[in-house]
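We were asked to recover a plausible sequence for a given structure. The inputs and outputs are reproduced exactly as logged, with field labels preserved.

PROBLEM: sequence recovery
POSITIONS: 182
GIVEN STRUCTURE:
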């Protein structure tokens, strides 16, 4: 996710201080990964340097002056362009789980146990997301659904892999597998 574009999008509603942007970001997007203040102000500094935001006012305080930021026309154009670009789908061709399975099979360990532990971990995560979804607002429900659908796909992969484990072990032990490697 582009933090800069997200902050710009939040600024389209009106000028805000960095603290307010962080709070708004965390409420909408940062449930699991809230932004650090340093990240907010570093991003705002970069956006300011690039002409995508401007300082709309300064309020003196006990510490550093509080700057209020506003999005510029260039910032609005940048958000518009960002929104028209589709997100690249996550393609998991390199998977830590797959690597563990292959290593377990190559070293004579129980790959089925690797799958069982992973399945249990996925089910635990799914239960937690389902609880969160039950108590959440519509936005939280949607983000939880997104994560749950991905976890369900992972579970389908685990079941398919479990059914093919013997074939994978045979393929890894075959002399042709060694010849095919660079």
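RECOVERED SEQUENCE:
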């Amino acid at each position: 996710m582009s933090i800069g574009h997200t902050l710009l999008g939040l600024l389209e509603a009106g000028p805000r201080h960095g603290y307010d942007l962080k709070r708004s970001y965390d409420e909408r997007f940062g449930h699991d990964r809230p932004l650090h203040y340093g990240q907010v102000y570093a991003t705002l500094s970069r956006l300011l340097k690039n002409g995508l935001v401007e300082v709309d006012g300064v309020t003196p305080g006990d510490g550093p002056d509080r700057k209020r930021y506003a999005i510029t026309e260039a910032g609005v154009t940048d958000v518009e362009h960002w929104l028209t670009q589709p997100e690249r789908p996550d393609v998991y061709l390199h998977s830590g789980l797959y690597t563990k399975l292959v290593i377990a099979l190559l070293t004579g360990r129980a790959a089925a146990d690797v799958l069982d532990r992973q399945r249990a971990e996925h089910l635990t995560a799914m239960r937690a997301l389902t609880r969160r979804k039950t108590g959440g607002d519509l936005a939280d429900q949607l983000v939880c659904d997104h994560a749950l659908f991905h976890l369900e796909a992972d579970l389908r992969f685990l079941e398919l892999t479990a059914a093919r484990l013997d074939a994978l072990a045979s393929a890894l032990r075959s002399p042709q597998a060694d010849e095919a490697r660079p």
